[in-house]
């Protein structure tokens, strides 16, 4: 896959090769990226103290047909990359970072809790509890990690479970599914094609699909149990983790506890065996989470 060059990065990389007039144009753009996308050619020329033909030549040097083309490309690149061009206004001191992440996590958890529909969660927990097999899928960052975490949580409760973030393996697992099988899929956007394709195959083969994703998305629409999760995107700065991960973890924790409660007798016996097995590795584990 070809990665398209970024105009802003190109200007920064080549600024030392520009002549004096071109450099003034580059500096005027880089000093206010957001503002530069809204300037007319006359306004940019005035700000850079150059002529309008200089702006046109500058645009063509960067591979654009003219100023309009340059401004459009600049706006597109800024919209896609603004997280990485801006810096946080709240500071980068350790105390500031801790406070930002803490507030972001709290907002995500509160928002997720407000979206809970208990009947839907009960339905999802019942399906997993009674499943012949459970397949946990996710792709990308937090969703792939949550799928692996779901496997880690559920096998301790004696649920027959496996997980993968491999698109090929997801399709293959869907192809061998059938009635009684359950797919638990995590997705921030609800748009990854491998998840959509796998959900389609699983549903055709009469398996159940539980989707933890945004409302009105392709994956959410395909699922027969949709745990709707939409967290406001406050990842405004590149150094602030996406808060969706906290909300997804809350969803998983609630599901795991519901399942544990519904199979408490069996789960308790298996958890005791796990703890006894771990004693031989590093002594008593009463104060530690099982398996951690």
TrEMBL record:
One of its GO terms (biological process) is carbohydrate derivative metabolic process. Residues 5-81 form the HTH rpiR-type domain. Keywords: DNA-binding, Transcription, Transcription regulation. Coiled coil: none annotated. Residues 124-265 form the SIS domain. The keyword Transcription applies. It comes from the Bacteria. SUPFAM superfamilies: Homeodomain-like, SIS domain. GO terms for molecular function: carbohydrate derivative binding; DNA binding; DNA-binding transcription factor activity. Pfam families: HTH_6, SIS. The keyword Transcription applies. This is Transcriptional regulator, RpiR family protein. It comes from Rhizobium tubonense.
């Amino acid at each position: 896959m070809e990665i398209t060059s970024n105009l802003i990065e190109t200007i920064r990389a080549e600024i030392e090769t520009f002549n004096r007039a071109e450099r003034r144009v580059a500096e005027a753009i880089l000093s206010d990226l957001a503002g530069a996308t809204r300037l007319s050619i006359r306004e940019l020329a005035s700000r850079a103290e150059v002529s309008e033909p200089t702006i046109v030549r500058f645009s063509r040097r960067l591979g654009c047909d003219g100023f309009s083309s340059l401004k459009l490309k600049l706006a597109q690149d800024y919209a896609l990359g603004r997280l990485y061009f801006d810096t946080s206004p709240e500071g980068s001191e350790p105390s500031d970072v801790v406070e930002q992440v803490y507030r972001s996590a709290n907002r995500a958890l509160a928002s997720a809790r407000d979206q809970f529909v208990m009947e839907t969660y009960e339905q999802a927990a019942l399906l997993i509890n009674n499943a012949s097999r459970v397949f946990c899928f996710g792709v990308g960052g937090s969703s792939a990690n949550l799928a692996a975490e779901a496997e880690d949580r559920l096998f301790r409760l004696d649920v027959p479970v496996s997980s993968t973030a491999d698109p090929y393996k997801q399709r293959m697992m869907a192809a061998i599914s059938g009635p009684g099988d359950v797919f638990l899929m995590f997705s921030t956007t609800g748009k990854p094609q491998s998840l959509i394709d796998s959900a389609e195959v699983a549903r055709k083969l009469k398996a159940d699909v539980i989707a933890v994703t945004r409302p009105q998305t392709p994956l959410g629409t395909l699922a027969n149990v949709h745990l709707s999760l939409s967290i406001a995107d406050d990842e405004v700065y590149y150094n602030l983790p996406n808060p969706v991960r906290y909300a997804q973890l809350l969803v998983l924790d609630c599901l795991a506890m519901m399942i544990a409660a519904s199979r408490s007798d069996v789960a308790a016996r298996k958890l005791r065996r796990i703890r006894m097995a771990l004693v031989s590795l590093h002594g008593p584990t009463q104060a530690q989470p099982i398996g951690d």
